[in-house]
Write a structure and sequence with these properties.
Blueprint (H helix, E strand, L loop, with lengths): L10 H20 L4 H6 L8 H26 L10 H31 L4 E2 L5 E2 L3 H4 L9 H30 L3 H4 L8
Length: about 190
């Protein structure tokens, strides 16, 4: 595969990036407040479209993230934009944190559901009532995974906001092409 750098990311990397950003944002907005409390009150999650969509989008985030990681190993070289060393290190740390959260959020959701014996409900009527591998595992009892999931959900939105603000800063102040590298390249007329 051609690993030669350009000024823009390849089309598949762009699609993965923006699709993930959209799905994470919608999942966050639809995230049911007090989900555990509702379940303990006997609410069937299948009767709540926000829960069904949130859980479906959460698994979509996991699938997209795994596919993105596979593509990361195969894709053409990422654009190399010259910037100050501290900016480069900050960008690497931000990306590492976002990748970790993209993986941790769906995992903590599954841990929360399994450890509290709540069903996983997805679009199309898919439902997994019991997750005994999770419920019976030692890790299930290490934390209140619903609280961890909620905290990480807030964290990913804050970090994504900082990530977007940094891209805008690069575009408006530094004018180095960082933001433009994540947008489709303009075709010559």
């Amino acid at each position: 595969m051609n690993r030669q750098s350009t000024s823009h990311y390849d089309a598949l990397s762009l699609a993965f990036h923006w699709l993930t950003a959209i799905v994470v944002t919608i999942a966050f907005i639809l995230g049911p407040e007090g989900f555990g409390r509702l379940m303990r009150q006997g609410i069937d999650p299948a009767t709540r479209s926000d829960i069904v969509w949130h859980e479906t989008l959460g698994l979509t985030v996991l699938a997209l993230t795994v596919l993105r990681l596979l593509w990361l190993a195969l894709r053409p070289a990422a654009p190399q934009i010259p910037m100050a060393g501290w900016m480069h290190i900050s960008a690497k740390l931000m990306h590492a944190a976002l990748w970790a959260l993209l993986l941790a959020l769906p995992v903590t959701a599954l841990l929360a559901l399994g450890s509290e014996s709540h069903p996983l409900t997805l679009l199309g009527g898919v439902r997994i009532d019991q997750m005994p591998l999770i419920a019976n595992s030692a890790i299930a009892k290490l934390a209140d995974w619903g609280e961890v999931h909620q905290f990480l959900g807030d964290a990913i939105m804050w970090l994504a906001g900082l990530h977007a603000a940094a891209a805008i800063y690069h575009h408006v102040i530094v004018k180095d092409g960082v933001l433009l590298s994540m947008l489709p390249a303009k075709r010559p007329r």
